[in-house]
UniProtKB/TrEMBL annotation:
The keyword Aminoacyl-tRNA synthetase does not apply. SUPFAM superfamilies: Glucocorticoid receptor-like (DNA-binding domain). Its cofactor is a divalent metal cation. It holds the Pfam family HTH_Tnp_4. Residues 1-96 form the THAP-type domain. This is THAP-type domain-containing protein. It comes from Ixodes scapularis (Black-legged tick). GO terms for molecular function: DNA binding; zinc ion binding.
Length: 342
């Protein structure tokens, strides 16, 4: 039989449903100090154990206090929380403690700037890649790595900045001669040898922003959701050669293309393949280049056969681009989830 160690509490494990004082509650051991782990874990577990003993206020408890239990009635949610969640009210018992003041002093907050010091740079990098590739929740990562959830959030944000700084040069606009040498013959036959880039936009869902202005700017009428929109440029081999900065989902394909700087890479004589939403012939023409988009009926009952064939070829290219975007989304599942908007 296990009795609750709190003064005045009569809960015990031997109580039966037929007894008048029966209550279905859990019993939880006084936490131990974890000396075999990192320095931060040892410090916070020692602090938590001291907080439990201080709130129980039993001078007759032995030093080791190994076999004592506290029942769930002394916790707000009915059970203690994760040992790293120091600001949670259930980090230590706080209810019905047998004395007048049932809530002990609030534990001091952990120094947020030192919260992730026990993780090495390699561990931080692995944490970041797990989050990016598998979209593991922050709370799960905090439990796996033994740190605070806020620490995980800061690590992910920091490594995103590092990745952008270090890896942005990996996306390069290819030289025209290189494009010509590597262009497949079937592609050359359909569109010529001057195709510089295939343009398309993709959108990532975000949570509904609290700001009304941000809510309007990110609303996508195409996706019927709040999104962030990116322009992506792809070479004929399927290599990503350009990615714009993020825009609100309300921004049109035309606005993003004319403003993001992708057209500055064009050379005289280049061709740009795109979808109907990219009505930018004038902007492309400024660079002495040519825009290839599917034709519009414009009031006609049907398109001429030659135009239909040209539109079919461009539609096949669009499928090629969507396949590349799909591969990126499948590889990094974070892009398939809803990102916090604020």
């Amino acid at each position: 039989m296990v009795n609750c160690v709190v003064v005045g509490c009569s809960n015990r494990t031997r109580n039966k449903p037929s007894e008048t004082n029966y209550k279905s509650v859990g019993f939880y051991a006084i936490p131990k100090v974890r000396l075999g782990e990192c320095q931060q874990t040892a410090a916070i577990t020692a602090k938590r154990r001291a907080a439990w003993l201080q709130r129980i206020r039993r001078a007759d408890l032995s030093a080791n206090a190994t076999h004592y239990r506290v029942c769930g009635e002394h916790f707000v949610t009915g059970r203690p929380t994760y040992f790293m969640d120091e600001l949670n009210p259930d980090w230590a018992p706080s209810l019905k403690l047998g004395y007048k003041s049932s809530v002990a002093d609030k534990p001091a907050a952990v120094d947020s700037h030192n919260a992730h010091k026990c993780l090495s740079k390699f561990q931080e990098m692995i944490l970041f890649f797990i989050r990016l590739r598998m979209n593991v929740p922050l709370q799960d990562l905090a439990y796996r790595f033994g740190v605070l959830q806020s620490t995980v959030s800061r690590i992910v944000e920091k490594w995103l900045d590092v990745g952008y700084t270090r890896l942005s040069d990996c996306i390069k606009w290819p030289e025209r001669e290189h494009l010509k040498k590597t262009m497949p013959m079937t592609f050359r036959k359909e569109f010529g040898s001057r195709v510089a880039v295939i343009l398309d936009c993709f959108e990532i869902f975000i949570e509904r922003p609290s700001s009304l202005v941000a809510r309007v700017l990110t609303w996508s009428t195409y996706k019927h959701h709040n999104t962030v929109k990116y322009l992506i440029g792809i070479a004929h081999q399927g290599v990503i050669t350009f990615i714009s900065k993020g825009w609100g989902g309300r921004a049109s394909d035309k606005l993003i293309t004319e403003s993001c700087g992708v057209l500055d890479n064009l050379l005289p004589g280049d061709s740009v393949l795109a979808d109907r939403g990219f009505r930018i012939p004038d902007a492309v023409g400024v660079h002495c280049a040519r825009l290839e988009i599917p034709a519009f009926t414009r009031g006609r009952a049907q398109l001429p056969p030659a135009v239909v064939e040209s539109t079919r070829k461009l539609a096949n290219v669009r499928i090629h681009v969507e396949r590349v975007i799909g591969l990126v989304r499948n590889k990094y599942t974070t892009l398939k989830s809803t990102i916090p908007g604020d």
